[in-house]
Amino acid sequence: MLLRHLNVDSYFYQNSSISFLIKLLSFKDLWMFNCTEGCQYNLSIHSLKVNNLSKIIIIDLHINNISGLLGLLSSLNLIGRTKSLHIYGPSNLKYYLDLCKKYSRTNFSYIVYFHILKTGLIINHNSFRIYTFVTKYYYQFTLISSEQYGTFFLNKARNNYLVPGPLYGQLKKGYSFILPDGFIINGTKLTSNNVLGFHLILLINKFYSRISFESIFESRAILSL
Fold first, then answer.
1. What's the DSSP call for residue 187?
2. End-to-end CA distance of the chain
3. Distances (CA, A) of 117 to 20, 24, 146
4. Which tens digit of pLDDT belongs to each residue from 210-222?
5. I need a surface site. Which of 2, 166, 171, 195 has the fewest CB within 10 A?
6. Is the pTM for the entire model greater than 0.85?
7. CA distances in angstroms from 125 to 30, 57, 60, 87, 133, listed in the order given
């Protein structure tokens, strides 16, 4: 997973609005958090195709977080986008875009799906999941990437006279087997190292809370707004 900041002079710990992009290495999809002014320019700097954008998550309706949204949606329309786009945000975000489309006389050639942010799982995309936790005092996003199994050494398995079948799948997961003659087949010797999962926390805190500190304890990356 690739993480790119889309606003200038941004860093991991800060107290201002932030826009960043998540690129899934195993897919072409791009996920964007907030849409600040100039985000299209920053996408081009990082050589990322705007048409690969599949999901946009807007944290709130602050002008810093939505100033580039209408321009981005219009650009997608101009390049002839046909696949649908999913936008996640507060309930009033849809009314904001409807008014912008009305007064700018703009229509989109693709379907835009709106999802209201609520506590729970909001995105489940293969091995990547995003959870949202909304309470009275804080706003939190948790992105979890599952651990990926290593590459199975097929030639090495064949050299050991292992017959292709369900056994290969079990060995790839690291299981070991004892043959009737006492010989042990260790699955970890037939696969490369597993790719560790990823745990990213995005906090929007109005007050410090025990739940927030407990949730970030095992996180590998933290973004605080």
1. G
2. 21
3. 18, 22, 23
4. 666 666 666 655 5
5. 166
6. no
7. 12, 15, 23, 15, 18
> Amino acid identity of 48?
L
> Please, are residues 131 and 120 in contact by the beta-carbon 8 Å criterion?
yes
120-125 and 128-134 strand pairing: antiparallel
List of E strands, the chain: 2-5, 20-23, 30-33, 53-57, 85-89, 112-116, 120-125, 128-134, 138-145, 176-178, 184-186, 198-205, 221-224
| Structure-block tokens of residue 109 | 């050639």
The structure tokens 């490369």 sit at 192
Give the count of alpha carbons within 13 A of 131, CB side only: 9
How far is the C-alpha of 204 from the C-alpha of 225, rounded, in Å?
A: 5
Under a CB-based contact definition with an 8 Å cutoff, are residues 209 and 188 in contact? Answer: no
Which fold, 2-148+195-224? Metallo-beta-lactamase; Chain A (3.60.15)
Percent of the chain at pLDDT > 90 equals 6
Instruction: Look at the alpha carbons of 163, 164, 170, 174 in this order and tell me if their dihedral is positive or negative.
Output: positive
Q: Any idea of the CA torsion for 216, 139, 223, 117, to the nearest 10 degrees?
A: 110
